[in-house]
């Protein structure tokens, strides 16, 4: 996989047209302020929550901020949004009402990370409750692959993970189940015309070819994501939340301080075409 190919694609998309990007900010420090000022180079940044000098502001408090931001997005007052520092529960509930989203429709979180070696890949199913069944793995992997192909205009190359190597199949029922699920997921993806491999536990093999990684379980995906971002000088480049056929916006981890990558990706999202 070419280093930084995906981030180069994001920059190219973000520069097509200058966009209005909303983000919720409830508190700041110097790092946060610097990242927001930097973001003004590539977008018109609208701050929801805390009033900041030099920006257009929409004042409000935690729960109301997220609700107002999603309403403004629906009304076309902003072109895209970054969740920022608000809790997402009330915002998601409001989004489901505004966009007529079936309560049973699972949202797809698709994280884009860059390792300290410059390797970049998307990962879906990195929230702790995700990927507990084969049905979920097929749903998440298929939806993420389709989005990467249709919106990001990149051919998906998919690595599906398990919790054991082939030689350990049968030794433990839990590990064996994840291996069998990986095999079935790969078979399904190939039937749809995608390139996919079962890389078992070998993420080091996955990053050599894949631009989409499917972890064995959501808990494992969450730990991979955090280890890259917080322990190894890697970067979180994007965290789009996707309700297939209905809505997509840029999500994040509320503990982050560098908002530039998220605002950049939101600008790219606003310029993407199906």
Describe this structure in words.
- This protein is α/β, with parallel strands linked by helices and 274 residues long.
- The chain has two domains: 1-105 and 246-274, Rossmann fold (3-Layer(aba) Sandwich), CATH 3.40.50.10950; 107-239, Isopropylmalate Dehydrogenase, CATH 3.40.718.
- The protein has helices at residues 5-14, 30-39, 62-75, 88-98, 134-150, 173-191, 203-209, 218-231, 260-271; strands spanning 19-25, 43-49, 56-59, 80-82, 108-114, 120-124, 157-161, 195-200, 212-214, 235-238, 240-243, 247-250.
- The strands form two sheets. Strands 5, 6, 7, 8, 9, 10, 11 and 12 form an eight-stranded mixed sheet that branches.
- Helix 1 packs across helix 9.
- The longest helix has 19 residues, at 173-191.
- The protein is globular.
Structure summarized in a few sentences:
The protein has 274 residues and is α/β, with parallel strands linked by helices. 42% of the residues lie in helices and 22% in strands.
């Amino acid at each position: 996989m070419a280093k930084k190919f995906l981030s180069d694609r994001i920059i190219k998309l973000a520069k097509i047209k200058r966009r209005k990007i909303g983000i919720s900010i409830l508190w700041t420090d110097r790092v946060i302020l610097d990242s927001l000022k930097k973001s003004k180079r590539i977008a018109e940044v609208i701050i929801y929550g805390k009033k900041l000098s030099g920006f257009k502001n929409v004042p409000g408090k935690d729960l109301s901020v997220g609700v107002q931001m999603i309403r403004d997005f629906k009304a076309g007052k902003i072109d895209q949004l970054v969740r920022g520092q608000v809790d997402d529960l009330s915002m998601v509930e409001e989004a489901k009402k505004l966009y007529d989203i079936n309560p049973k429709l699972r949202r797809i979180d698709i994280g884009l990370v860059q390792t300290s070696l410059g390797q970049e890949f998307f990962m879906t199913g990195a929230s702790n409750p995700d990927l507990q069944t084969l049905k979920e793995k097929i749903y998440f992997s298929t939806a993420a692959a389709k989005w990467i192909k249709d919106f990001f205009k990149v051919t998906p190359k998919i690595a599906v993970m398990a919790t054991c190597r082939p030689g350990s199949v049968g030794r433990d029922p839990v590990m064996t189940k994840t291996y069998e699920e990986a095999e079935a997921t790969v078979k399904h993806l190939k039937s749809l015309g995608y390139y996919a491999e079962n890389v078992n536990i070998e993420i080091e093999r996955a990053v050599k070819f894949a631009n989409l990684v499917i972890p064995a379980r959501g808990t494992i995906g969450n730990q991979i994501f955090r280890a890259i971002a917080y322990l190894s000088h890697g970067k979180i480049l994007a965290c789009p939340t996707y309700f297939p056929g209905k809505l997509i916006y840029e999500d994040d981890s509320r503990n982050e301080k560098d908002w530039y990558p998220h605002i950049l990706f939101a600008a790219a999202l606003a310029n993407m075409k199906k």
